[in-house]
Amino acid sequence: MASTQQEQREAAQEISEAFVEAYNTGDTSLIEPVVTDDFVCHHHGAGVELHGASEYAGRIKEMRGAFSEFKMAEDILVVEGDLAAAQFSWGGTHDGPFQGIDPTNESVHTSSLCLMRMDDGKLDEMWIYSDTPGMLEQLGLEPRFGED
């Protein structure tokens, strides 16, 4: 069981690295070993709730299909007990359909804030807040406030 602060930090770093690598390479099999069986992701930027590694893998595939040259990086990781907060920057070229938006061929560079709760060294629950208005602006679209 990841119980000391150092063990929790190492677990959070392993989780973060697995997600970044999965997004960057498309290898979604990296997600299952770092999440619990009951893993849930509340993605406020996309207005969806994803349950389990397989549903989250679908989100990664959606992002990589919508944005070629997709790259993600961890900018900040802070860990306190079984909680962690991370800021990720990501970008790519919007050349595939994305959440009902036809390809714009525009480049996007934005960030997301992720709050995580771990259980026994694995990710159990995650809340993602993305800069959706900023991304839409980069795509040349009007932000759709109040819509999920």
Question: Would you give an account of this structure?
Answer:
This is Ester cyclase. The protein is of the alpha+beta class and 148 residues long. The protein has one domain: Nuclear Transport Factor 2, Chain: A. It is 29% helix and 41% strand. The chain is built from 3 helices and 6 strands, in the order αββαββββα. The chain has helices at 5-25, 52-66, 132-138, and strands spanning 35-43, 48-51, 67-80, 83-94, 107-119, 122-130. It has a 6-stranded mixed sheet. A hairpin with a 2-residue loop joins strand 3 and strand 4. The longest helix is centred in the N-terminal third of the chain and has 21 residues, at 5-25. The protein is elongated.
Quick gist of this model?
The chain is α+β, with helices and mostly antiparallel strands and 148 residues long. Helices cover 29% and strands 41% of the residues. The protein has a single domain (5-138), classed as Roll (Nuclear Transport Factor 2, Chain: A), CATH 3.10.450.50.
Task: Kindly list the characteristics that best describe this protein.
elongated; 6-stranded mixed β-sheet; single chain; 148 residues; 6 strands; alpha+beta; Nuclear Transport Factor 2, Chain: A
